[in-house]
Amino acid sequence: xxxxxxxxxxxxxxxxGSDIHTLIIHSSTLPVTHDNGDSDRQQFWNMPMEExxxxxxxxxxDNAFEANSNLKLLVMRRDDALRSIGEEAFIDCxxxxxxxxxxxxxxxxxxxGKNAFNNTGFVTIGDEDAQFELNAxxxxxxxxxxxxxxxxxTNVHIPDNFNNGIVPEGTFANAAELKEVTVAxxxxxxxxxxxxxxxxxxx
Length: 203
Known about the structure:
This protein has strands at 2-5, 22-26, 51-55, 59-60, 73-76, 84-85, 98-100, 109-112, 124-126, 132-133, 138-140, 155-158, 166-167, 180-183, 189-190. It is mainly beta. A 5-stranded parallel beta sheet has the order 1-2-3-5-7, with no helix packed on it. A 4-stranded parallel beta sheet has the order 4-6-8-11, with no helix packed on it. A 4-stranded parallel beta sheet has the order 10-9-12-14, with no helix packed on it. It starts with a strand and ends in a 13-residue tail after the last strand. 39% of the residues are buried.
């Protein structure tokens, strides 16, 4: 089954436990705060969906898709609006292994929150052939720990335009299977624990 989501249809945890398998979001906003200032979190927590398609969404809130263990594919379709992916937005989506960003984002800055993709299923991160392309936008990852605890990750390529040439703290920490990292010439700073506990790292 599938569902189309538009503005004002979402409330906190509305879709918990539903049987949606493909989620298509046509919306300029997802709810982020209540009147009392508390964050809206986990709008799509623990659902059986395998694919999420997003258009015209400037911000993916904190914890929005947390613990969707069946999620495999995230598509940003015809979308130059995206500016941020919140903290722990896709944490524990352990089978998420493919993100397709719109080419319209190539010259836009997109902020990645802390632990945004913690414990996801990517094997390769980096160039245009990777499952998560770091050249797809001008990613700001200063919060750190964006790709930590990646149990399937084996290869990383860090391009010149990733986070202004800085690899933040803990970005690829605890990647048990990471064996190879290549770094573009203009990446000049690798911060503390960026590759901590990556015990199989060869180069």
